[in-house]
Amino acid sequence: MTAPRTPLRSRSRGRALAAALAGTALVLSACGGGGDGGGGGGDAGSDVEPVTQEQIDEAMSTPTELTFWTWLPDAQKEVDQFEAAFPEISVNLVNAGQGLDQYTKLRTAIRAGEGAPDVVQIEYQYLPSFTLGGDLLDLGPYGASELQDSYPEWVWEQITEGDAVYGIPQDIGPMGSLYRQDLLDQAGIEAPTTWAEFEEAARTMKEAVPGTYLTNMPGNDPGQFVGLLWQNGAKPFGFDGDQTVTIDLDTPEVTEVVDYWQGLIDEDLVSTDADFNDQWYQGLANGKYASWQTAAWGPVFLQGTAGNTSGLWRASPLPAWEEGDTATGNWGGSTDAVLSSTENPIAAAQLAKWFNTDPEPALTMALDQFLFVPHDVVLENEEFLDAAPEFFGGQQVNQLYSELTTEVDTDFGWLPFMDYVYNSFNDTLGTAIAEGGDMEAGLAAWEDDITSYAEQQGFTVQ
Amino acid sequence: MTAPTTTGPAGGATAPGRAGPRRRGHSPAVRRQHRAAYLLVAPFMVVFAAMLVVPLVYAAYLSLFREQLVGGRSFVGLANYARALGDSAFGEGVLRVTLFLVIQVPIMLGLALLFALALDSGRLYAQRFVRLSIFLPYAVPSVVATLMWGYLYGPDFGPFTQIAEGLQLPAPPFLSSSWMLGSLMNILTWEFIGYNMIIMFAALRAVPADLYEAARMDGAGELRIAWSIKIPAIRSAILLTVIFSVIGSYQLFNEPNLLQTLAPNVIDSAYTPNLYAYNLAFTSQDLNYAAAVAFLLAAGIAVVSYVVQLTSQRRARS
């Protein structure tokens, strides 16, 4: 379950399933030696000796109790499988809320020094805010390092700082476009393949089908907007793992995206409704929006929200900035991390690892819970790839999204306080989007605000 | 009419004077009584201290520190307070709720008083039914009330929009930035008018009926009685509702917080001072500054409440 939602703004997370069916795992044979992207290394790697198989076997056959916080619906299924595989370990499964609600509780528990879980679900962009205080265990020595070849390179970059591995990927959200074939037909347009075509199509759509916009650009969804920046090769954020952050929103890659949407909004070619509230759900269901630029969890989410439009939707890659360009961004997705305060690091690390990489639970997540699990065990699974949901007119949506998985820029970093950054987006750039204001000014205000917050919090800003 | 009472029915503003305690020479019986009194008050005092005093003191202590994500915690004295005083986000929030207060509270209390007087006049049909229906919104939890109003305000599918469309009129933009404060005022008025009316109505029932008879003998009409006898007689109850409303306005949180999902870019993270303090603590992870903001707000509320009380007392004396 990804939580693409924005902080605090999103307390109405009615979102149930968010995940995707998916496609062929283009075998990412050994993306070699690991690349050194990810917003700079830092020497976060621990000096712990790798644990041996004997140590693991011993830990897993010792009666142990683990606490696992996750908001994945029906996670009990996988936990039961784990307990069947390791009868000595009992797992206490807790749903402590989704996204920020859970992080607030987690931070409180960490500060209090008690009540924190052993294993916890954390979204990619929030990992640095927990590694910052040294709250997460480096899973490298616990058998995570060997997983590198099973993941797309960019996913691996998202969970590592230098050699340290801070989470096991649960699901990801490479972005594509979902659109209503019937509405496009009605307007006589093809699914646009470039953003320039997209603008033309938006104009045609508005004239041809009154009351329908080609898409909606919400002012409260920094996750989506950042995903679109990511597609265009922007690298606005970075963190060296220590005290230095990079905030760089004043770049051509960012302003190109901002100016583009400014144009669409000024001409009233797209709507600017807030997303993930009732109003928006209805808009998806009743044809107010003819497309949605969303992540790999979008297709299943849409089936739950707009069930009455089954068969009318199709999926495609995001429009490209340059003809033939295939790059995309990521929006959402989670990892399972282990807290450094755990008393049973070996067992906890095994739980996080087994849960997301063993074929049984990984395929349960992918096929029953419709998560887009980035491990090869799922991305190379025929049943997963060949699924052809009726909702999308029999299109193999998983196939498409798994192809998109390889098109995500590897070098996208985060700041160690993304909750603030996202909240600030809503008050600055997001407001400019929603109110039809000056988006470049909003962008500058966003950058200023997060820069002064970073300085206030004692970071060195580059 | 009910029997006259000596103190204001709601007791609020002017606490009845305590009987002067004699300091020394209590008889054993009196001492036993005192012991019993302390014993009976003790459970309350323990909970009061644990749940209110200790957290307050702790928050005051926290507000004197600064804790950075990098660099840890340091004592900064009153720097957080200085920062809050110069914080435009906080200042705008305070101004916004002050504007809210100045407009909404007189409307709400005026209507509440009008309803209370109407009910008290005994000239309404189905008096109990009317009383109950005005009071009913207060029984609806504010969260539910806000969700309900949020639906009513909906710009695409809300009933107001549908009616407007049916009449070929533009849909009223309840959730836009220029209307939002008014929309909030409407929700709060709807929620609390009945509550305030009941306080005033109860006070009216306690006014001795012979005053009215005397007034009538002197030739006063109902309006004159209402203006010159009833309203002055329930002054302390009205004062109480004013002070409650002042405090309530400055503490606005639930309603804007819930409407935020519908209009996330209209209600920003500092829309009201309480919302700001909440976001500081849980989004910015700046508990210390949040504590300082909360204390400043509390101090502000205390000052405003005191001024309200003072002016009203002065007017009473003159």
Low-confidence stretches of chain A: 1-45
Describe the main β-sheet of chain A briefly.
7 strands, mixed
Strand content of chain B: under 5%
Number of helices of chain B: 13
Main sheet record of chain B:
2 strands, antiparallel
State the helix count of chain A: 19
Structural features, described:
The complex is a heterodimer of chains A (462) and B (318). Chain A has 19 helices and twelve strands. Chain A is of the alpha/beta class and 462 residues long. Chain A folds into two domains: 190 residues, Periplasmic binding protein-like II (D-Maltodextrin-Binding Protein, domain 2); 198 residues, Periplasmic binding protein-like II (D-Maltodextrin-Binding Protein, domain 2). In chain A, the strands form three sheets. In chain A, strands 1, 2, 3, 6, 9, 10 and 11 form a seven-stranded mixed β-sheet that branches. In chain A, strand 4 and strand 5 form a beta hairpin. In chain A, helix 6 packs across helix 7 and helix 17 runs antiparallel to helix 19. The two termini of chain A are 34 Å apart. The N terminus of chain A is likely disordered. By secondary structure, chain B is an all-alpha fold. Chain B has one domain: MetI-like fold, CATH 1.10.3720.10. Chain B is built from 13 helices and two strands, in the order H-E-E-H-H-H-H-H-H-H-H-H-H-H-H. In chain B, strand 1 and strand 2 form a beta hairpin. Classes of the chains: A alpha/beta (462), B mainly alpha (318). Chains A and B meet through helix 3, helix 10, helix 17 and helix 18 of A and loops of B.
Outline of the structure:
Chain A has 19 helices and twelve strands. Chain A has 462 residues and is an alpha/beta fold.
Output the keywords.
heterodimer, A: 462 residues, alpha/beta, D-Maltodextrin-Binding Protein, domain 2, 7-stranded mixed β-sheet, 3-stranded mixed β-sheet, 12 strands, globular, B: mainly alpha, two-stranded antiparallel ribbon
